[in-house]
Amino acid sequence: LVNEDIGFQYGKSATLPDESLTTSSDQFDQAGYPHNGRLYKPWKFWSPSYYDEPFYLELILVQNYYIFAASVHGRLSTSNNNFTMEFSISYSENYATWKQYNPNFRFKFNNIIEKHTLVKSIEARIVRIKFPGNYDEMPYLKVELHGVITEKSSAYCRKPHPLGLSSQAEHGIPDQSITASSISSQTSYARLRNSRFWCGPRSRPNQWISVDLGH
Fold first, then answer.
1. Which tens digits make up the pLDDT trace of 99-147?
2. How confident is the model at residue 31, as a pLDDT?
3. What is the dihedral of CA 160, 166, 170, 173, to 10 degrees?
């Protein structure tokens, strides 16, 4: 059970939707969707928009898991297989409080999958694999986490998942399905992980935003 794949990898073992892999809005690039970071995905890697500054790949587990290991597959835009860099793991159960796992991990961009075992397991619902940046060339990454679901999560629905409202969803809820009490700003700005926000008129009470899920 310790080595159980959580479901980010590509293929039949993938149990988590594409929207469960994401990144910060300033590091999002439609040419390299975060779901390209699924381990074993053929011919695809995830890469950040900017590699001269810190970046992370965020993994949304939806339910709480005990995490025992992380597998990372990385390469550079050239054949520099000796390039080594540290990465760190931060994690949260609710987005409000974040914890940092110590120590960091040493990782080589040699186009080989490296499995890094945590000395002590962590309990998390959201995990960020963070890199310091400052690279001279573009890094490419794929990841998977290994662990087991916690008892408190197993009592809930076993397959909750994002519905496609995030701005990073490649095939999600369309803009015309998002309506609001006013059109003072575009309703699509209400999408999660958008660099903008939807806002109604200040003087109007009881404002709302509605999403048609289509089913």
1. 999 989 988 888 899 999 999 999 999 999 998 877 777 888 999 999 9
2. 60
3. 80
Non-local (6+) Cβ contacts of 44 within 8 A are 36, 38, 142
pTM, to two decimals: 0.71
The residue assigned the tokens 């399905």 is 177
Backbone Cα Rg of the chain = 19
Pick one of 2.60.120.260, 1.10.1740.10, 3.40.50.2000, 1.10.1060.10 as the CATH number of 18-149.
2.60.120.260
Q: Where are the domains of the chain?
A: 18-149, 162-214
pLDDT tens column, 72-107: 998 887 766 667 888 999 999 988 999 999 989 988
pLDDT of residue 200: 77
